[in-house]
Amino acid sequence: MSTTVHISQQKPWDVTTDLVIVGHFEEAPLEGVLKELDTRLKGSLSDAVARGECSGQWLSEWTTATLGSIKPRRVLVLGLGPQSDFSLRELRLASGAVAQAALKQKAARVAWLVPDVGRDPAEIAEAATDGLLVGSWKFAGYHAQPETEPSLQEALLLGLGEEAQAGVTRGQVVARSENFARELGMRPSNKLYPELLAEEAVKVGQEHGFDVEVLDQNKMRELGMEAILGVGSGSVHPPRMVIMRYNGGGRTLALVGKGITFDSGGISLKPGLGMEEMKFDMLGAAAVLGAMAALSDLKVPLNVVGIMALAQNMPSGSAYKPGDVVKAFNGKTIEVTNTDAEGRVVLSDAVSYAAHLGVDWIVETSTLTGAAITVLGHEATCLVATNDALASLVLQASEAALERVWRLPIYPEYRRLYRSSVADIKNSPGREAGTITAGMIIAEFAGDVPYAHLDIAGSAWTPCTPLNQTKNGPTGVMVRTFVKLSDMLSR
Ligand code: BES
Ligand code: ZN
Ligand code: MN
Predict the structure, then answer these.
(1) pTM for this one?
(2) Which of 118, 200, 358, 446 could form a disulfide with 451 if both were Cys (CB 3.0 to 4.6 A apart)?
């Protein structure tokens, strides 16, 4: 069951809910709503503040039963940290904490007095709605006895006028897509392999109104996509290339995603410890699919082509091997020095196919390098771009979407690292500047089209956060940035 979000003009003490949540900034005196609430609670809040139980510290919680003194059954005062640090990003995270608290208290209905961050009401409502819905999502799993705990059914946003409704609607559309991408990420690779993910795309296209074309092995062989065929050749589940077309008019943006439904490393096998996480190696493709659904719903006036490069990277007698040379769709050849650097190999076909379609921009995302985690940890996405104008648009879009992206440089000196003596490029240049060379290698297949690469190896799944109950759970990252970017490019 998913949560619905509504705007309500009611006062926090007048809403009939299981739980009402009000924010409190660090070191801020109890004024306005908090003061009125304190009076109605017969001073128990000011008492808690005096005893240091309710400090306003970031995401600290003080909660009490109301025992009939006001309409809601319980009150929770949520610490918002210092007011000077509180922006839309913090509002989104705090709203995630609101959802988590409601789930923990088994509240079916929660009301959240949205703190003012001095921005447009629709923007505030969108951030709050997104935080609530991303924060209340949970993967159902495959238990014989499914969990029957009541989930959070309704969230009321207090303190916002009806002019914020557009933001709620937008937040609902986008969060639904983010959670869908996360859902796909959680599915293990025996239940989500290339054919099945391609089928999902067909279903989503029918539901949201965009065209979906699936290229199978035969079609890809005909087109000369030896690279993705090579990566997929070790698996009993053959690769797929999925081409999605949303026609909103105007110029054309290509969104390309890496969809390795499982990355064992192939013949260059990965170590066993933690290998199960490599079911997440399709989160780039999932972000593209999610974004396609959202921007169709939002009727963004732009043409968008979404491409998912789907394969399962497995070792077997038929697997591609170190030393193999494959030719990509655009004719460039790749020497495979490490079968575990498979993302750039499948993307060489996907990106050169996008360029061949005559698009105006190519933005690609992938869980591409462990080095991206070394650089920025789980806090941000690495950007490698050949075009400054596009890079700056992507950075602006990500900022507006409250997703952190940091650009890395491209220096021509790095090129020697991926030179090969037997092919145009080798796929695994080694550790030096690993995230950058990966992006530069894929850029070789974009031709003259402005190209941006977003490495989400660190940001696509993260340890426990206010928005992520599951340890090492998927985040749905890049869905919001892609939607914002489409918006910006349509102007
Ligand atoms: N899917 C991995 C990258 C990855 C690693 C994502 C850890 C998230 C967490 C990718 O296919 C890979 O194996 N990359 C190699 C590239 C190397 C062989 C050049 C890597 O990063 O070690
Ligand atoms: Zn991979
Ligand atoms: Mn790999």
Answers:
(1) 0.98
(2) 446
